[in-house]
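## retry 2 of 3
previous attempt timed out at serialization; input unchanged, resubmitting
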Amino acid sequence: MAKCDLTIELEDPDRAYHGGDRVRGTIIVRTDKKVHCSNLELTLGWETHGRGNIARATPIQQSVYRGEWQPGEHRYAFDLETAGWPPTYHGHYLNVDHYVRARAKIPWAFDPKTEIPIRVIPTGDPNAIPPAEPNQMSNVIGFLVAALLVGTLIGFSVAFVFNPFVLAIFGGLALVGSGYWFCFKWLPKWKLGQVNFHVDQQQLAAGEALTGNLSIQPRGNLAINQISMTLSAQERCVSGSGSNRRTHRHILFEITEMIATTSTVAAGKPAAYPFHLQLPDNAAPTLMLNDNQLLWSLQATVDIPRWPDWKEKKSVTVVPRQNHEVDPAKSGAAETVAPQISFAETAKLIWTVRDDPDQVERVVSAVIGLQMEFPCVILRRRLADDLPTKHAYPDGTIVQARFSHPELPLTLYAPSERTEEFHEQAGETWQGRGTVVGFDYESQSLQIRIPAEASDRRP
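## retry succeeded, writing output
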């Protein structure tokens, strides 16, 4: 069977793109025999990976070539327009990456494919983005779950007529719910009297100030311990469906400011408490990507002595700055737009999704080509025929190692001049730099190419 390999080379591989910028590069096809291609397809799109169900969109799809390849190398230049939304984002449970993908459809053979990630700066309009492609299986499961719930409700309704015990159970649950609402919703609001919680601007950009006012007018003299405002950003990712549906939450940012301390508000007299909270310059924008969300909110809390606290939460939408000239590396936005992900974070992500090859591939693809510093325990040398040698140096050495937290296996490709160094470090901790080049699924190890220069720092 003829061998066909695809490679994508970007004109500027280190560039960060704004929405509307052109992504230019070349698809390189290498064949060792004559190959018929029914379609060489090029796509530009984005995809989430992490804890949540995958969301994706491919707004640009092009057919590059149809025909027969002769043995040798064939090059096809491309020029695509970058989508402005969503931005590249690497968080705790949620990650968003943009890709340029190429796939050659070969009749009666496996289709060779390749992809390369690009970084996208958040400058698009989130209200004008195309929606993520729906997960058809999730839609079917959702319909079945809804039908099951409706059927269950009808069944219980019939049971109410013939089984008083069921009615008693549901009556008890309704009583508990009513009690909760009375104690934690109605009583605090009754104590405060007229309450007006107002936010001046519910949509704002990173670095801007969130301002507003909270006013109360109690029926009687009201003592308060304090009034606080909490601004927070949370990742909310949903995985699975039906009985296996799980929601994963992580607080990215949280700041609380006291806008009033111990005091007494006179009966019938309105009291106003203005507030002013500053968003960080590198605030990640609000993301709503199906089951993958990054949400901002503002919660007001009035602490009333010997009484349930009054609380109310408002959603806040954080949008990208419209100044395209901002350098994310200088503005601080690099942490949320084009983050310098650490090796420990990469290892944790791979370890989390290690049982899902597709998820592992997406994580590894996002960091291929990045040079990182990392510590590891050197285990033993491997023979050249033990592992794929695509990334090995001529006359170099292949070393099996292990990262400690988590215990992710590593395969290190070192040049011949550093063989003795790794031999001496066997069984010990080594620290240095290397470039991520791939992942070996048979040994479940991350593949790293070590440079010829010994720039490591040993503990």
